[in-house]
């Protein structure tokens, strides 16, 4: 049984948004086409409280994209984005949502960032996504969306660690930084993940 995880297709991550991923909007039509080819579709939503610690504005003297230590780990500081209840946090209006059975929210703890749909960055708290997928009989997990080098990558990495057969759909994802995305894909392959293109799913040979 195959699940598609649609990662953070939210207004703040597309051009014009607070943390725009270059060409982020280009994944939407592909994700819509892909959804009917899966047994289960789940979405994630970055969902931060006001003054979240991943925001540069919460750290005096720092700018977006600076890196600081937060609870002992490196933390990239971001522009304020995906604040709970704002339009920027909404899923993009062009994303078809009727097949999305559940939306897992992340980044809700004011102190800890959470790139993965499964765990916060320190792996302290689970969102329950792995058990949800297992409960639905899923063994194959396909991950796509935004951003390829952050939330897509970390979600795929945790999916592997949770024992799922894991695929990153490259052309249905866009990164913040292309170089970071290359490293992310290499890392996933080293860990046993596979990089695929949407054509492999839409027109299997
Ligand atoms: C993301 C940075 C901060 C993402 C979320 O969805 O990839 N990146 N928060
Ligand atoms: Zn975030």
From TrEMBL:
Domain (Isochorismatase-like): residue spans on this chain: 3-197
Catalytic activity, EC: 3.5.1.19
GO molecular function terms listed in the Swiss-Prot or TrEMBL record: metal ion binding; nicotinamidase activity
Keyword terms, alphabetized: Hydrolase, Metal-binding, Pyridine nucleotide biosynthesis
UniProt pathway annotation: Cofactor biosynthesis; nicotinate biosynthesis; nicotinate from nicotinamide: step 1/1
Superkingdom classification of source: Bacteria
Cited InterPro entries: Isochorismatase-like_dom, Isochorismatase-like_sf, Isochorismatase_Nicotinamidase
A Gene Ontology biological process term: pyridine nucleotide biosynthetic process
CDD domains reported in the protein's UniProt record: nicotinamidase (cd01011)
Pfam family, one: Isochorismatase
Protein family (similarity comment): Belongs to the isochorismatase family.
Name this protein carries in UniProt: Nicotinamidase
Species: Hymenobacter jejuensis
Name of the gene: pncA
């Amino acid at each position: 049984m195959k699940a598609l995880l649609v990662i953070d297709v939210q207004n703040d991550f597309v051009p014009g948004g607070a943390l725009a991923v270059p060409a982020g909007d280009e994944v939407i039509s592909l994700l819509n086409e892909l959804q009917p080819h899966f047994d289960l579709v789940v979405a994630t939503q970055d969902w931060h409280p006001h003054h979240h610690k991943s925001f540069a504005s919460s750290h005096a003297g720092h700018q977006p994209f600076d890196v600081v230590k937060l609870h002992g780990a490196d933390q990239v500081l971001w522009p304020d984005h995906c604040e709970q209840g704002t339009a920027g946090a909404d899923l993009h209006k062009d994303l078809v949502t009727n097949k999305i059975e559940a939306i897992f929210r992340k980044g809700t703890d004011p102190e800890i960032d959470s790139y993965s749909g499964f765990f916060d960055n320190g792996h302290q708290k689970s969102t329950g996504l792995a058990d949800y997928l297992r409960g639905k009989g899923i063994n194959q997990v396909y991950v796509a969306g935004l951003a390829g080098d952050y939330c897509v990558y970390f979600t795929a990495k945790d999916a592997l660690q949770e024992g799922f057969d894991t695929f990153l759909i490259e052309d249905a994802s866009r990164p913040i930084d292309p170089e970071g995305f290359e490293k992310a894909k290499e890392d996933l392959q080293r860990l046993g993940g596979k990089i695929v293109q949407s054509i492999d799913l839409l027109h299997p040979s």
